Amino acid sequence: MDSKDPHGTLRRALWIGGAQWAGKSTVAELVAEAHGLTVYHYDWHDSRGHHDRRVARRVAEGAPVADPAPDLFWSEHEPAQMAAETLAGFPTRFAWVLDDLRGLFAARPVIAEGWGLRPELVAPLVDSPRRMVVLVPTEEFRQHQLRTVPRAGRLDVPLRDPARGQANRVARDRLVAEDAARTARRLGVPVIEVDGSRDAPAVAALVAEQFAPWLAS
Questions:
Q1: What stretch of H or E contains 47?
Q2: In a 3-state reduction of DSSP, which class is residue 46?
Q3: Can you give the residue ranges of every domain in the chain?
Q4: In terms of Cα–Cα distance, which of 33, 82, 64, 20 is closest to 208?
Q5: What are the backbone angles phi and psi of residue 194, rounded to the nearest 5°?
């Protein structure tokens, strides 16, 4: 048995990465429902199941255990610094994802989705770049979401300057999204730009088309 992939889950996995607010979770669930697959939701595990690991890592490093104060993170840092810190933290968080997936057995491929599933981290694990798709919203579609989706248009944390915090968040997410798309194209990973002209089932059909060789087996 391969201790790095005891159930073959990583070898068979399909990956959806990309930007915040690109519909990754919805698309993954639509593809999974149509093809009898299991979905691994990165955001859920990252914000809940991995919290104890995050605390333990900080203790081992002698770092403060608590998260930074919301104002310090969202209002007092520039977006470029925020994006750099986010990107720098993804490899450690990805290692925890791999631990989760190694312990999961599924007869059919697992779809792992989330913005922390970065192309440069996934690429060494797959036998074809088509095992991954990166979804990114166009700037016009992102602005539409900010106007129409309540949780996209505000931060649910108390801030002295909510407008500045939200502006920093939007700018950070844009930088992280641009990096994901640029890296994916360099590695030959398909990128789908979500512009609102296709509904979620139509985007899911495009993703399923990319994954077709592994969905049919």
A1: none
A2: helix
A3: 9-215
A4: 33
A5: -95, 115
Give the pLDDT confidence of 21-77 residue by residue, as tens digits: 899 999 999 999 999 999 999 999 888 878 888 888 888 888 888 888 888 889 888
Which tokens is 14 given?
């399909």
Q: What is the DSSP track for 74-102?
A: HTSS-HHHHHHHHHHHHHHHHHHHHHHHH
Q: Are 159 and 70 in contact (CB under 8 A)?
A: yes
What are the tokens at 101? 């997936």
For 82, the token pair is: 């925020």
Both structure tokens of 12 = 């068979």
- 38 close to 104: Cβ distance less than 8 angstroms: yes
14-18 and 132-137 as β-strands: parallel, antiparallel, unpaired? Answer: parallel
- What's the rounded Cα separation, in Å, for the pair 129 and 119? 9
9-215 CATH fold:
Rossmann fold (3.40.50)
Cβ-proximal residues to 43 (8 Å cutoff; 6+ apart), any chain: 25, 114, 115
DSSP string, 43-64: HHIIIIITHHHHHHHHHHHT--
CA gap 217, 215 in Å, rounded: 6
Report d(CA 55, CA 45) in Å as an integer.
Answer: 14
Q: In whole angstroms, what is the distance from residue 204 CA to residue 167 CA?
A: 30
Compute the average pLDDT of residues 80-88: 95
